[in-house]
Write a structure and sequence with these properties.
The protein is of the alpha+beta class. The chain folds into two domains: about 130 residues, no CATH class; about 120 residues, GMP Synthetase, Chain A, domain 3. Helices cover about 25% and strands about 25% of the residues. A four-stranded mixed sheet has the order 9-10-11-12. A three-stranded mixed sheet has the order 4-5-6, covered by helices on one side.
C-alpha cells in the first residue's frame, strides 16, 4: 500500500509540539498530587529556552539579499536577520551556497549565487568597499553565475548608505578576471541590474529600471532597459506599459490595450492617468495586486516620490493596494506562497 504524502508547515509542527508539551505537563501535575514524593523544581537557569520562544524575543534587523531565479534573473529579497555587528558581511554570507542558505532560498523559489565554501573579508572606508573573496569563488559553474555573483555583491553592499562602490580581491590579491572570464579588476557601482539584451546601444542611451511579475506571480523582478530618452518618471511608466520582452519569462502587468494619458508629479506625489482598460487588472488571478505593486515600485525608485495616485480617464481610481510598498519582495510574504515547507514521504 502506498501511503499518501503528508505536508506539514513548520508553524503547525511547532504548535503541535507545544500543545503536546502542555498536555504532558498537565498530566504530570495531576499525578504529582497523588504522590508522596517531594516535588522537584528545576533551577531556572537550567531550563533551556525553546527555539519558538527565542524567536519571539530575538532582536532583528532588515537586510536585502540578492538571489537568482530559474530564468537567471537576480531578485532582491528583504529578509529579517538577527541584529548584529558586521551586517554587510553577514548579508554576503547569506548569498553563499550551503545547506541552510540553499533551503532558505528554495522556500522563495530562488538559489544563492556565490559558490559553496566562499568566505569574505570586508573593509569599508569612506564609501569604498573592498571585498576579499576566498579562492572558492573561482568555482562558479559558468560565466552567467560569475556575472550575477559580481552584480549581486555590488547591489547588496550598495544597499547600505556607507557604500558607494565596490572593488574585489581573491585571496588578498588583485585578479583581473574569474575562471570564466568575468572581469573583476575595476571599481563597480550599481548599474545594469538584469539588463535586457538589445541588438545595439547608442552612446547617448540611458537606462530605466522597471519591475515585472515573474510568471508564477510570487516575485517581482527588476529589469533594466536601454532607452533613447531621459531616465525620468514618464519614460519609466511608458516602458512599464510596454511590458517585458516576449521571450523574457516575465509577465506583462497591464492589459495590452491600456493607454497612458498623462503623468504628473507634485510634492512627492506622482499622478498617472490611464485609459479605461486599466480597470481590467481586477480580472487578474490576484486581483491586480502584483501589477500595482510593480507599477508603484517602478515609480518610487525615483528620489522624492512617496505616493502613487491612479486616475482612469481623469477620474480617481482606487487600486487593490492601499500603501506604497517599500521593497519588491519580502521574504515572509513570498514564503507564504510556498506551502510545502516540510514534506514527509
Amino acid at each position: 500500500m502506498k501511503w499518501p504524502k503528508i505536508r506539514i508547515k513548520r508553524a503547525d509542527a511547532e504548535r503541535a509540539l507545544i500543545a503536546c508539551s502542555a498536555v504532558l505537563v498537565l498530566a504530570l501535575s495531576v499525578t504529582g498530587r497523588n504522590s508522596t514524593m517531594e516535588p522537584y523544581e528545576e533551577p531556572l537557569e537550567d531550563i533551556p529556552v525553546s527555539e519558538a520562544a527565542a524567536s519571539v524575543i530575538e532582536d532583528t534587523q532588515q537586510t536585502v539579499v540578492y538571489y537568482e531565479d530559474g530564468d537567471g534573473y537576480l531578485v532582491p529579497v528583504q529578509r529579517d536577520v538577527p541584529r548584529q555587528d558586521g551586517i554587510a558581511k553577514a548579508t554576503l554570507n547569506l548569498m553563499v551556497q550551503s545547506a541552510k542558505n540553499d533551503m532558505d532560498a528554495a522556500r522563495l523559489g530562488l538559489v544563492p549565487v556565490v559558490p559553496e565554501g566562499t568566505t569574505f573579508d570586508l573593509d569599508i572606508s569612506q564609501g569604498h568597499a573592498r571585498v576579499d573573496m576566498s579562492n572558492q569563488v573561482m568555482n562558479a559553474a559558468d560565466k552567467q553565475q560569475e556575472e550575477n555573483m559580481r552584480t549581486a555583491i555590488v547591489w547588496a553592499l550598495t544597499e547600505f548608505d556607507t557604500v558607494k562602490d565596490v572593488t574585489f580581491l581573491v585571496d588578498g590579491q588583485r585578479v583581473s578576471a574569474l575562471s570564466h572570464g568575468t572581469n573583476i579588476s575595476g571599481s563597480y557601482t550599481r548599474v545594469g541590474l538584469n539588463r535586457e539584451e538589445t541588438e545595439a546601444v547608442f552612446a547617448d542611451a540611458q537606462e530605466v529600471q522597471m519591475y515585472f511579475p515573474a510568471q508564477d506571480g510570487r516575485l517581482l523582478v527588476p529589469v533594466s532597459r536601454a532607452v533613447y530618452a531621459s531616465d525620468d518618471m514618464a519614460t519609466a511608466v511608458f516602458e512599464f506599459l510596454r511590458g517585458p520582452k516576449e521571450d523574457s519569462g516575465l509577465e506583462t502587468p497591464l492589459p495590452k490595450d491600456v493607454q497612458l494619458l498623462g503623468v504628473e508629479m507634485a510634492d512627492g506625489v506622482v499622478t498617472i492617468n490611464f485609459s479605461k482598460a486599466f480597470t481590467r487588472i481586477a480580472e487578474q488571478s490576484d486581483g491586480g495586486v502584483q501589477a500595482m505593486r510593480a507599477l508603484m515600485l517602478t515609480c518610487t525608485r525615483y528620489p522624492g516620490i512617496r505616493k502613487v495616485k491612479i486616475l482612469v480617464d481623469g477620474e480617481p481610481y482606487q487600486p487593490p493596494v492601499d500603501d506604497v510598498p517599500t521593497f519588491a519582495n519580502i521574504a515572509q510574504e513570498v514564503a507564504v506562497s510556498y506551502p510545502e515547507v516540510m514534506m514527509i514521504e
